[in-house]
Amino acid sequence: MAARTIEQPKERLLTILALPFMSCSARLPVYALFAGTFFVREQALVVFSLYVLGIAVALGLAKLFSSTLLKNESSLFVIELPPYRVPQALTLWRSTWEKGKGFVRKAGTFIFGGSVAIWLLTYIGPHGVGVAMDDSFLAAIGGLIAPLLAPLGFGAWQAGAALITGFLAKEVVVSTMNIIYHVHETNGLKQVIASHFTPLSAFSFMVFVLLYTPCLATVAAIRKETGSRKWTLLSIGCALTVAYVISFAVYQFGHMLGYS
């Protein structure tokens, strides 16, 4: 929505398509969980590298789109900067409070709704209700995409199911894992994922979470701001492709170099 201030259609569209690749606060719980489990001493550097990667991918794709899909669009960018002033403390506090409250409300709503949906998918299966986790609809859905994720280092249905629910909101990935693995504390979840991931596959998973399809709210915003189903589907497809290719490269090249 911030792209509304850009008057030129080409720059506005490029901004809308590139912004989802830059890491947002919703992905931080995933980074904190995996970096805190597998990269205790280097977790700050690992998380920082993800932010740098997101910026680099966004800039690279913006350049690519500018020279291919939008090469025939004219571009003229002139902006008049207003005089800058130190904001008043009360204004700063109100703005911070409103934005923080809005984020907590949005995150809480998505997490609660997503958790309920995930619980239902784990409780109901093709053979009825109250089934074992491995016989649930969630396991079936995750199992369908697990073979596709195996070359990325995390070919278990649990990882696939968590990524599917991440489309609601990236914060839901961690809560999904809590439900799937039947743990309620962060330390317990860390112990569980330590037995299902390696440091290399964990980093590959974080890269995929960074780059794959943005959350439902972002997709809705892209559809509204572009007014085009084509650009919305392109954004989704491009994100999935880029996430898969880069995660594949990270895991396979890391494996070739002897990392595990």
Automatic annotation (TrEMBL):
Q: What is the lineage of its organism?
A: Bacteria, Bacillati, Bacillota, Bacilli, Bacillales
- Which GO cellular component term is one of those annotated? plasma membrane
Q: What's the short name of a Pfam family annotated to this entry?
A: FeoB_C
Task: Tell me one GO molecular function of this protein.
Answer: ferrous iron transmembrane transporter activity
> Where is each Ferrous iron transport protein B C-terminal domain found?
47-99
Enumerate the InterPro entries for this protein. Fe2_transport_prot_B_C, FeoB_GTPase, Gate_dom
The Nucleoside transporter/FeoB GTPase Gate domain covers 105-228
Q: Where are the transmembrane segments?
A: 12-34, 46-65, 103-124, 136-154, 161-181, 201-221, 233-254
Protein's UniProt name = Ferrous iron transport protein B
Entry keywords, A to Z: Membrane, Transmembrane, Transmembrane helix
This protein's record includes keyword Transmembrane: yes
Q: Does the keyword Transmembrane helix apply?
A: yes
